[in-house]
Automatic annotation (TrEMBL):
PANTHER family: L-LYSINE 2,3-AMINOMUTASE, LYSINE 2,3-AMINOMUTASE-RELATED. Pfam families: LAM_C, Radical_SAM. [4Fe-4S] cluster binds at C102, C106, C109. Belongs to the radical SAM superfamily. KamA family. InterPro entries: Aldolase_TIM (IPR013785), LAM_C_dom (IPR025895), Lys_aminomutase/Glu_NH3_mut (IPR003739), rSAM (IPR007197), rSAM_sf (IPR058240). GO terms for molecular function: 4 iron, 4 sulfur cluster binding; isomerase activity; metal ion binding. The lineage of its organism: Bacteria, Pseudomonadati, Thermodesulfobacteriota, Desulfuromonadia, Geobacterales. Keywords: 4Fe-4S, Iron, Iron-sulfur, Isomerase, Metal-binding, Pyridoxal phosphate, S-adenosyl-L-methionine. Residues 88-307 form the Radical SAM core domain. The modification N6-(pyridoxal phosphate)lysine is found at K314. Its cofactor is [4Fe-4S] cluster; pyridoxal 5'-phosphate. This is Lysine 2,3-aminomutase. Gene3D superfamilies: Aldolase class I (3.20.20.70). CDD domains: Radical_SAM. It comes from Geobacter pickeringii.
C-alpha cells in the first residue's frame, strides 16, 4: 500500500478518540458525526494547539452544525447539473465532482450535503456521461475537477479522466481543486507529479486557510507540484475564529507566495446548512481587503468574492476606493489620501 493510503487509513474517524485526546465529552461530538462524517489525518490533527483554536474549528465537529436551518444547496448546484456530478453554471466552464472523499472533512464544507456520503463518487457510467456531455458541448473550454478531493482518486483513474479530457479538442485547460497539500501532503508523490505534467495546461488550486497550515510538509508538496510546471493558486474561505483578522490573513497570503502559491480568492462563507457559526460580515472581509491593499505585495491580494445564492455566480467586492466628479476620479490610496485623477480618454 502506498504511504499516502496508509496515512489516510490511520486517520481519526471516531468521536471517542477526539474526546479522549482532548479531555471532552464524546456526547458533544457523536450527534454531529451521525449526520456529517468525521475524518482528520494525523498530520492535520497534529497542528491543533488547543481546543477551539483555528485548526480545531476547521476539523472537529461542533453541535452548532445541527442548529442551522439554511439551505443544503444554496448555490443551486443540483439544478445546474445536466448529468450526475457535472455542474454547468458558466457558459465556457464546468465543475466536475469526480470524488466525494476528502482527507479531512472540513466542518465549513460547501458540499456538506454530499461529501463523505456513499454512492456519490464517479464511476464508469457517470464518467462516460460527463465526458459525453463535455464532448457534445463545444463552448466548454475549461473543466474544473472538484469533489470531495480529486487527488484522493488513484493515479490511474485520475489519469484516465485527464487523458479523456485532453482528447476533446475544445477543452483548452483543466483545473484541479485540492486540499491534499494541507491535510495529506504525502499524497503529492513524484509519481503523481510526473503523471500530471503530461496534461498541461493544468492548474491546481489549493486551499490554505491559516498560516499554521503552511508546514514544511505542505511546502514540500507544493514545491513538487510547482517543479512539475503546474501553476498553483489558493482559495481561502473567510471563517470566523480562524482567519477573520487582517494580520492573520496578510501573513497567510505572504507565506503562500513564499511557497510559490498565488492567492486567488477569498470566499465569503456560503449560506450552507450547518455552517452559520463560521460566517462573518461582509464588512469584515472588506476591512481585510483594505488592509491587504498597499500594505503588502499586490500579488498577495486575492479577489474577495461572494458566490451568489441561486447559482448566480461569483461577485467580486472591493473596499470603496473611487468616486467621480465630472471627468475627475477621486481615488483613495492605501494611506487614505484622496488623489485626483483626470480621465483624459474622452
Amino acid at each position: 500500500m502506498e504511504l499516502w493510503r496508509r496515512r489516510l487509513a490511520e486517520s481519526v474517524t471516531a468521536p471517542e478518540e477526539i474526546a479522549e485526546k482532548f479531555g471532552m465529552d464524546p456526547a458533544l461530538l457523536a450527534p454531529v458525526v451521525r449526520r456529517y462524517p468525521l475524518r482528520i489525518t494525523r498530520h492535520y490533527l497534529g497542528l491543533i494547539q488547543g481546543v477551539g483554536d483555528p485548526i480545531w474549528r476547521q476539523c472537529v465537529p461542533d453541535l452548532q452544525e445541527l442548529e442551522d436551518d439554511q439551505q443544503a444547496d444554496p448555490l443551486d448546484e443540483e439544478r445546474l447539473s445536466p448529468v450526475p456530478g457535472l455542474i454547468h453554471r458558466y457558459p465556457d466552464r464546468v465543475v466536475w465532482l469526480v470524488s466525494n472523499e476528502c482527507a479531512v472533512y472540513c466542518r465549513f464544507c460547501m458540499r456538506k450535503r454530499r461529501v463523505g456520503c456513499p454512492g456519490q463518487s464517479a464511476d464508469d457510467r457517470t464518467v462516460e456521461d460527463a465526458l459525453r456531455y463535455i464532448a457534445e458541448t463545444p463552448q466548454i473550454r475549461d473543466v474544473i475537477l472538484s469533489g470531495g478531493d480529486p487527488l484522493l482518486l488513484d493515479d490511474d483513474f485520475l489519469e484516465l479522466i485527464l487523458a479523456r479530457l485532453a482528447a476533446i479538442p475544445h477543452v483548452e485547460m483543466v483545473r484541479i481543486g485540492t486540499r491534499a497539500p494541507v491535510t495529506l501532503p504525502e499524497r503529492i508523490t513524484l509519481r503523481l507529479c510526473r503523471m500530471l505534467r503530461r496534461y498541461h495546461p493544468l492548474y491546481v488550486n489549493t486551499h490554505f486557510n491559516h498560516p499554521r497550515e503552511i508546514t514544511p510538509e505542505a511546502a514540500h508538496a507544493c514545491a513538487r507540484l510547482a517543479n512539475a510546471g503546474i501553476p498553483l493558486g489558493n482559495q481561502t474561505v473567510l471563517l470566523r475564529g480562524v482567519n477573520d483578522d487582517p494580520a492573520v490573513m496578510a501573513l497567510l497570503m505572504q507565506r503562500l507566495l513564499a511557497i510559490r502559491v498565488r492567492p486567488y480568492y477569498i470566499h465569503q462563507m456560503d449560506l450552507v446548512r450547518g455552517t452559520r457559526h463560521f460566517r462573518t460580515t461582509v464588512d469584515t472581509g472588506l476591512s481585510i481587503m483594505e488592509r491587504l491593499r498597499g500594505h503588502t505585495s499586490g500579488m498577495a491580494a486575492p479577489y474577495y468574492v461572494i458566490d451568489a445564492p441561486g447559482g448566480k455566480g461569483k461577485i467580486p467586492l472591493l473596499p470603496d476606493c473611487a468616486s467621480r466628479r465630472g471627468d475627475v476620479w477621486l481615488l483613495r490610496n492605501y494611506c487614505g489620501e484622496i488623489i485626483e485623477y483626470e480621465d483624459l480618454a474622452g
